[in-house]
Design a protein that fits this description.
The chain is an alpha+beta fold. It folds into two domains: 96 residues, Immunoglobulins (Immunoglobulin-like, Sandwich), CATH 2.60.40.10; 306 residues, Glycosyltransferase (Alpha/alpha barrel), CATH 1.50.10. Helices cover 36% and strands 10% of the residues. Strands 2-9-8-4-5 form a five-stranded mixed β-sheet, with no helix packed on it. The two termini are 38 Å apart. The mean pLDDT is 96. Bound molecules: ligand 9MR. Ligand 9MR binds next to loops. The site of ligand 9MR has 9 residues, from loops.
């Protein structure tokens, strides 16, 4: 039965690791105690005292925590509390998040462009391919004498960005950086993972196989002068149809410094990752590094070419009205690209080309802010970098710790790092939760201090259901997860369940879609599972990527 309104038991709907914190949050408790019932024996195996009430930061209610951390016996359970419906069932077991970890990567397979998804890999979400992108038009904003407006560019593959059918270099950049970092941080885990994708049986980790699908596309987006087109897109968003029926003309648009530097960062990182697979992928690492250097050079010569869609549309036809990713500051992209090139080449020139450590507060990675991406990589390789710069890099450790400490006091009512501030609930708030988790994990790797690991786990629990909306935000995973994401294939495929393993954007009081049915505009409750809600219930690759990182990290770090 559904809990009464304003009450209920909220928890990670999948489950908990042995030896890890286990908390449910209870709203509207009528008694002081809660019990955990084993679903096999139907017996109460644990009785606990609820914690002190905590006021919600946003809504007019208090919650109490049910802490059952000491229950470590593997099994299937529910939580009961007087006057409330039982919680969703959950597991306690080692590797409890491995299936959803795999699904979060498989989500990228379902986003593949220019290919059929056969049933053996895609199950009931099998579909025909679309968007071959082998003869893409050069938009007048991008035309050069070498590639005039009637030039046809071949730039196939890549992932659909989100619920729409376009591909955007800026957003691909942070996505690829995050996935490649997951591999660099946890190579043993990813080397074993089988995703049941067409490349499953090759000698490359499946996560990297998946990133290759997008890397091949990205490499085609570099113009002959080294600059990189901002995006490959239709002029307007397509209708809510399957890929094969979305056949409007596609364009590459103006080059931008941000896209070019994001490209430089990704290809530099890819060059060192794929150098380990030279025999399987001969020449790829070299091509990536050459492309990266060329992009870097272009950006140095063109340091401030922003993508301003309004300006593009004033000057050229047709008007382009799809996602802009119109980042106005290039400083962070320069830092990220310089860091990756420095690490991959060992060449001090990249280190000293710009001020890598400006006196500005750190901020959480997002598509428009990638400075920390560079620092994560520096931290990862801190013991392998050329000696001369060591003393400058070392203070970075203190800065990262300081940044993580600033995150860790989150929401008292939900006992999560996520939700400490109203500012967490932006468009794509689920990725804020996931990226906070990544930042805490990077800090955990530097310090070995468990509070950072546990902070990351609290956000994992947030994403899987311990939150004010009551949803697990990963499609197909958890008892109450989005059924109607703003995702064209999920809407158009005629299958009840949405494509699985995709992270819904999450609560966003901005409600820019004007969609009806939002239950509230309270920041952490402003979510509606309706496909009209692109501002709260779309999916996107840059949101899935930190989810992948977080889930993989949990699997590694809680199973040792
Ligand atoms: O994730 C983007 C978010 O930060 C912006 O506020 C929003 C509006 O510009 O756009 C989001 O990105 C969308 C992109 O522009 C087009 N594809 C779907 C993306 C997710 O909604």
């Amino acid at each position: 039965s559904e809990p009464a309104e304003g009450s209920g038991i909220y928890l990670n709907q999948i489950g908990f690791y042995v030896g890890a914190p286990k908390i449910a949050i209870i709203k509207g408790a009528a008694a002081e105690k809660f019990t955990v019932v084993d679903l096999n024996s139907n017996k109460a195996v644990f009785e606990g005292q609820l914690g002190e009430p905590n006021q919600s930061s946003f809504g007019n209610y208090t919650t109490r925590a049910a802490d059952f951390t000491i229950l470590d016996r593997p099994g299937s359970y529910v939580i009961q509390a007087t006057g409330l419906a039982d919680s969703y069932p959950f597991e306690i077991e080692p590797n409890v998040l491995n299936e959803v970890s795999k699904a979060s990567i498989k989500g990228f397979y379902y986003q593949r462009m220019s290919t059929d998804l056969p049933e053996i890999y895609a199950g009931k979400w099998t579909r025909a391919g679309g968007h071959p992108d082998t003869a893409v038009f050069v938009h007048p904003s991008a035309a050069t004498s070498e590639r005039p407006a009637d030039f046809k560019l071949s730039a196939p593959k890549g992932w659909y960005d989100a619920g729409d059918y376009n591909k955007y270099i800026v957003n691909s950049g942070i996505t690829m950086g995050t996935l490649l970092s997951a591999y660099e941080d946890f190579p043993a885990y990813y080397s074993k993972l089988d995703l049941n994708i067409p490349e499953s049986n090759n000698d490359i980790p499946n996560l990297l196989d998946e990133t290759l699908w997008n890397l091949r596309w990205m490499l085609r987006m570099q113009d002959t002068d080294g600059g990189v087109y901002h995006k490959l897109t239709t002029a307007k968003f397509e209708g809510m149809v399957m890929p094969e029926n979305a056949t409007n003309k596609r364009w590459v648009v103006q080059k931008s410094t941000t896209a070019t530097l994001d490209f430089a960062a990704v290809t530099a990182q890819a060059s060192r990752v794929f150098a380990n697979f030279e025999s399987q992928l001969p020449g790829l690492a070299d091509s990536c590094l050459a492309a990266s250097k060329k992009a870097w050079k272009w950006a140095q010569q063109n340091p401030e070419v922003l993508y301003n869609q309004d300006e593009v549309n004033k000057a050229h036809d047709p008007d382009i009205t799809t996602g802009a990713y119109g980042d106005k500051s290039v400083g962070d992209e320069f830092i990220w690209a310089a860091c990756e090139l420095y690490i991959s080449t060992g060449d001090e020139a990249y280190y000293s080309a710009i001020n890598l450590f400006p006196d500005e507060n750190l901020s959480l990675p997002s598509w428009g802010n990638v400075r920390l991406m560079g620092y994560y990589s520096l931290a990862r390789f801190i013991n392998k970098l050329p000696h001369t710069s060591f003393s400058e890099i070392t203070p970075l450790r203190a800065q990262l710790i300081n940044f993580a400490d600033g995150l860790i006091n989150g929401s008292a009512a939900w006992q999560t790092v996520m939700g400490g501030s109203e500012k967490d609930f932006v468009w794509g708030s689920s990725a804020v939760a996931a990226n906070q988790g990544v930042a805490l994990l990077q800090t955990y790797r530097l310090t070995n201090d468990k509070k950072y690991l546990e902070g990351a786990l609290s956000n994992m629990d947030y994403l899987l259901g311990r939150n004010a909306s009551g949803y697990s935000f990963v499609t197909g995973h958890g008892d109450k997860s989005p059924i109607h994401p703003h995702h064209r294939p999920s809407v158009a495929d005629g299958i009840d369940e949405p494509v699985p393993g995709l992270l819904s954007g999450g609560p966003n009081p901005g409600q820019q879609d004007g969609c009806e049915g939002y239950p509230s505009n309270i920041p952490d409750e402003s979510f509606v599972d309706n496909d009209c809600s692109y501002a709260s219930n779309e999916i996107a690759i840059n949101w899935n990527a930190p989810l992948v990182y977080l889930l993989g990290a949990m699997e590694v770090l809680y199973n040792n």
